[in-house]
Amino acid sequence: MKQTPHHSKAGERDAGKLGIPEPTSERVVPLDEIKLAIGDSFQIQTQIEQAEARYYVKLVGYLKGRSVLVTIPEAEGRLCYVREGQAFVVRFFAGRNAYAFTANVLKSSSIPFPHMHLSYPSQVRGLVVRAGERVPVRIICAVVMQEDMRTVTAAGLLTNLSVSGALLSAKTRLGSSGDLLSLKFRFDIREIEFVTSIDAAIRSVSQDEYGEFLHGLQFAGLANDVAIALTAFVYQKLAESPH
């Protein structure tokens, strides 16, 4: 079921106490100064009536000042129709930075493989991704705790997430600072669903003006595959966010 977000100044203040960084700093860089590799994934978003349609394409190469060559996007195993002049917002990440630029389709062809030339960007906006970067989310999770020598399960909502921790909202208080709990939740990376279970420690507890309990969590002992998946998810969310 889709969750309707509600914002509160109290929640924002509590988030600040949990060490959530200020908005990422933005800078403008030339495309050729970014360390890109053939085969890197770009996310493209249409700029017409289907403004929410996003697709993934692969970088084939580029020639400075001329064009950026990428594969043609696919949906449900079929090539999407693109027309000359069609506008896209292109997003990607490289290293620890997320980038975005706008481009138009210059030419598309199916020979020798489906590809299209995008206009070479005059500038690329970059967001510096700091360590512990958190992104806003709305992810329902199951919370498992130990209470009076028995295992108790509750429902919660993750409202921000990073590789190192999260902010968990729940209708009841799930523990105190220092208590341990386990989270189970799902998230998508490039249309691939991941289900994970993560152990965490409560670092702070507060309440917002709606009566929801906000738990600042610190993750403990992440497996390498989980850490990599969470990092990719955070970068993806940063790349998708308007900036």
From TrEMBL:
ATP-binding found in the keyword field:
no
Write the record's keywords in alphabetical order, separated by commas: Bacterial flagellum, c-di-GMP, Nucleotide-binding
Q: Domain Type III secretion system flagellar brake protein YcgR PilZN spans what residues?
A: 38-121
Residue span, PilZ domain: 130-236
Q: Which Pfam families match?
A: PilZ, PilZNR
The Gene Ontology terms for molecular function here are: cyclic-di-GMP binding
Q: Which domain of life is it from?
A: Bacteria
The annotated region (Disordered) lies at 1-23
Give the protein name, as stated in the record: Type IV pilus assembly PilZ
